[in-house]
Amino acid sequence: MDGMTFPEIDVKSLPDGAYLLDVREPDEWRAGHAPNACHIPLGELQGRVGELPDGPIYVICRLGGRSAHAAAWLNHIGREAINVDGGMQSWATAGLPMVNDDGGTPFVA
């Protein structure tokens, strides 16, 4: 991503208790997400940045592109943000726990 700088982390390296921000769209979130993630779609992030806690924010999306943009912007405004490399697709591949909002089997494509 030209001109953007942000740290990245592998899903298996996320620290215990990490604040995970999911920036995917609502339908993606409903289909399957990390159990303790916070959901703020990328398009709403600038208006809702005040909802984020102080300290490191681990940002995730489907594949890593939107979360990279979010992490770069958050770092640009002085927040500490780390992109989760590979997004929820890597999360699912790693066999990490997922939940969805309708009680069915989580789906990540």
Can you summarize this structure?
The protein has four helices and five strands. The chain has 109 residues and is α/β, with parallel strands linked by helices. The longest helix has 12 residues, at 65-76.
Please give a structural write-up.
The chain is of the alpha/beta class. The protein has one domain: Oxidized Rhodanese, domain 1 (3-Layer(aba) Sandwich), CATH 3.40.250.10. 27% of the residues lie in helices and 16% in strands. The chain is built from 4 helices and 5 strands, in the order E-E-H-E-H-E-H-E-H. Helix 1 links the parallel strand 2 and strand 3 (38-39).
N- and C-termini, Cα separation: 23 Å
How much helix, percentage-wise, in residues? Answer: 25-40%
Radius of gyration: 13 Å
In which order are the strands of the major sheet placed? 1-5-4-2-3
Silhouette: globular
Pfam families: Rhodanese
InterPro entries: GlpE_sulfurtransferase, Rhodanese-like_dom, Rhodanese-like_dom_sf
Domain Rhodanese: 14-100
Protein name: Rhodanese-like domain-containing protein
